[in-house]
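We were asked to recover a plausible sequence for a given structure. The inputs and outputs are reproduced exactly as logged, with field labels preserved.

PROBLEM: sequence recovery
POSITIONS: 59
GIVEN STRUCTURE:
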């Protein structure tokens, strides 16, 4: 009992994630969780090399 909507029902199109603005197919599995965390860590390490030294010292 669903309306005829092939573009939204197709698994290739899928709804877009408003949080990331990308398809929920791959962004949900890798981007939403790993991508966001990895990007933040990389940006911190590259943007602030001092943070890396502080973390190593604390560890």
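RECOVERED SEQUENCE:
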């Amino acid at each position: 009992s669903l309306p005829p909507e092939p573009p939204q029902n197709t698994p290739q199109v899928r709804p877009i994630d408003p949080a990331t603005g990308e398809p929920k197919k791959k962004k949900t599995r890798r981007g939403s969780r790993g991508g966001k965390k990895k990007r933040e860590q990389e940006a911190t390490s590259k943007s602030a090399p001092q943070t890396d030294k502080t973390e190593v010292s604390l560890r």
